Structure formats: structure tokens, C-alpha cells
Amino acid sequence: MLLSELRQGQSATINRIGGNGALRRRILEMGIIKGTEVYVEKYAPLKDPLELIVKGYHVSLRVEEAAKINVENVR
Q1: I want to staple 66 with a disulfide (CB 3.0 to 4.6 A). Which of 4, 26, 39, 58 is the partner?
Q2: What class does CATH assign to 3-72?
Q3: Where are the alpha helices (DSSP H) in 1-75?
Q4: Contact, 43 vs 8, CB < 8 A?
């Protein structure tokens, strides 16, 4: 499942980070790495971007960026 497919209030574990170059590096630098648990706090009113809680802090990602991240163990 893709991170962008999660609904508000769901959590999951990062399985794989797609993409390449600067985008991939930026995502990894934010602490979004394999095995990390993420929680979808909320979506913006127009459904882009989405706000995540990763390792206790808030991160906003565009839906386009979140679509490059595979997750598993959705709760």
C-alpha cells in the first residue's frame, strides 16, 4: 500500500522509499526510513498536502511525494 492511500487517523510502518535524487534524500533526511512508524494526522482542506507524525514530530508531504513511499502493517 502507498502512504498516500492511508486515511486520516491511520498509522503504518514504512516498507520502501521510492523516487531518486534530491526528493529521496530529502525524505530520508526527515527521518522517514524503512521500519519507521508513521501516523497520518490530517489532510489539508484540498487533500494536499498531508501531515504526518514521524518519530514524535510533524512532517508535511505532498500527496505526490507520499505516493512514492510503500507502507505495511496498516492500523
Answers
A1: 4
A2: mainly beta
A3: 21-29, 63-66
A4: yes
38: β partners = 12, 54
Would you state the cell numbers that stand for residue 13, as one nine-digit string? 510502518
**Among the listed residues 34, 27, 17, the one whose alpha carbon sits nearest the alpha carbon of residue 68:** 17
pLDDT digits (tens, 9 = 90+) for 19-60: 888 999 999 999 999 999 999 999 999 989 999 999 999 999
> In Å, how far are 2, 12, 20, 62 from 7, measured between CA atoms?
11, 11, 25, 14
Domain boundaries, the chain: 3-72
Burial code (b: 16+ CB inside 10 Å, e: under 16) for 9-39 equals eeebebeebeeeeeeeeebeebebeeeeebb
Q: Are 7 and 26 in contact (CB under 8 A)?
A: no
5 DSSP 8-state letter: G
The three cell numbers locating residue 53: 507524525
